[in-house]
Specification:
- The protein is of the alpha/beta class.
- It folds into three domains: about 130 residues, 3-Layer(aba) Sandwich (Rossmann fold); about 140 residues, 3-Layer(aba) Sandwich (Rossmann fold), CATH 3.40.50.2300; about 90 residues, Arc Repressor Mutant, subunit A, CATH 1.10.10.
- The chain is built from 17 helices and 13 strands.
- The protein is globular, with a radius of gyration of 23 Å.
């Protein structure tokens, strides 16, 4: 393709997920471009430009309305869609013939469920947004994960009418619902905006966070998470990596080197723990003390003996009670916390593997690599590389 590619990006810039995806697209364009872009700041509602007049060659779009779908089909340009619904993915639907980028909502929800259960919660709730496919998928997976562990979930019924969703009307409704929940309780929200709203409602209702109600969102929109009071924990998605891969796929489509529909997935990376869920909620005070010590000191070169001395119980007694309450041994929990922090370093920094090993409490890089491979099925270097290359599947 001789001309400079011109790509319309109909992606919400008001959300952290969209902005991170745009960063990945821009990173690819800088390496393989130059590319020209059409982008309009905004939320989920977007408008397709007059592609022929503009000279557009490709589109990456959230297809929120039939009007946008019609305009895309009329353009006859290579297009990658974002988060198609189950109906749109049916073989008889025209949009099913497009390549797609989707967040792995099910895995993100399971990660949030695991995070809250590992904090010791035994009562759970979910707050979503009506008529958003990714919210529905996260709700379904969260409920399934919690029920599979033997617990129940209370689901907030989000208003479907736009007028009822206006914050001044929904705010008192959400407060009443939160007040009626059993406490203490762990709550997942479908994204960080919803998480911030739940925290605001808790503040209005006088519900203590995280002592009575812990909250974890999705997307790790750092601005929204830090604006929340208290700061919001969130599942980080590999949106930048999938943005890079989407640009790579679109480039091949524009050069007519790829025609079959593909599905690219933004996988969840880890939970970024902030104050909204930074608590251990266990009936056994000594086990809670041991768990807190492990979480606070995992990056230090501690062993199980250090935990036992801190709690001042016999090792056998503490091991039995810890296993009964947490479902893992203290050694397994120490390794789990270290590996989660290692993944965060591998995701967010470019520091060398030996430095990562030292930063998360391993005395030698070789032992760190051995433990990481046994747990994750790949070396730390392979994990870091996979964040860009990522998994892809046929739609």
């Amino acid at each position: 393709m001789d001309q400079v590619p011109k790509v319309a990006l109909l992606i919400e810039t008001a959300r952290g997920y969209g902005r991170q995806m745009l960063r990945g697209i821009v990173k690819y364009a800088r390496l393989h471009g130059p590319w020209g872009f059409y982008v309009t700041p905004g939320d989920f509602e977007q408008a397709v430009p007059k592609m022929r007049q503009w000279g557009g060659t490709g589109i990456i779009a959230r297809i929120a309305t039939p009007r946008i779908a019609d305009a895309i089909f009329e353009s006859k340009l290579p297009t990658i869609a974002l988060d198609l619904t189950e109906e749109q993915l049916r073989p008889d639907h025209p949009l099913s013939q497009l390549s797609e980028v989707a967040s792995d909502s099910a895995s993100a929800a399971r990660m949030a469920a695991t995070h809250l259960m590992q904090r010791g919660f035994r009562q759970f709730a979910f707050v979503g947004i009506a008529d958003r496919v990714w919210s529905d998928r996260r709700e379904t997976a969260f409920v399934q994960a919690i029920k599979a562990a033997g617990f129940d979930v209370t689901v907030y019924q989000s208003p479907r009418q736009a007028a009822a969703r206006r914050w001044e009307r929904e705010h008192p409704r959400l407060i009443r619902w939160l007040e009626g929940l059993p406490k203490p309780i762990g709550v997942m929200t479908c994204n960080d905006d919803r998480g911030r709203e739940v925290l605001e409602a808790c503040q209005s209702a006088g519900i203590r966070v995280p002592e009575e109600l812990a909250v974890v969102g999705v997307d790790n929109d750092e601005l929204i998470c830090e604006l929340a009071d208290p700061p919001l924990s969130s599942v980080a998605l590999n949106a930048e990596g999938v943005g890079y891969r989407a640009a790579q796929l679109l480039d091949r489509m524009m050069r007519r080197r790829w025609r079959k529909p593909r599905r690219l997935v933004a996988e969840p990376l880890h939970v970024v723990t902030r104050r909204s869920s930074d608590i251990i909620s266990l009936d056994d005070a000594e086990v809670a003390m041991a768990l807190r010590y492990i979480h606070d000191h995992a990056i230090d070169p501690i062993q199980v003996e250090n935990v036992v001395r801190h709690v001042d119980l016999s090792r056998r007694n503490l091991e039995i009670r810890f296993q009964d309450s947490v479902g893992r041994t203290m050694h397994q929990e120490l390794q789990r916390v270290r590996l989660e922090r290692a993944k965060q370093f591998l995701t967010e920094t470019n520091i060398a593997i030996p430095e990562v090993a030292e930063a998360v409490g391993y005395r030698t890089a070789s032992y760190f690599i051995q433990v990481f491979r046994a747990s994750c099925g790949m070396t730390p270097a392979q994990y870091r590389r996979s964040l860009r290359e990522g998994p892809s599947q046929k739609a």
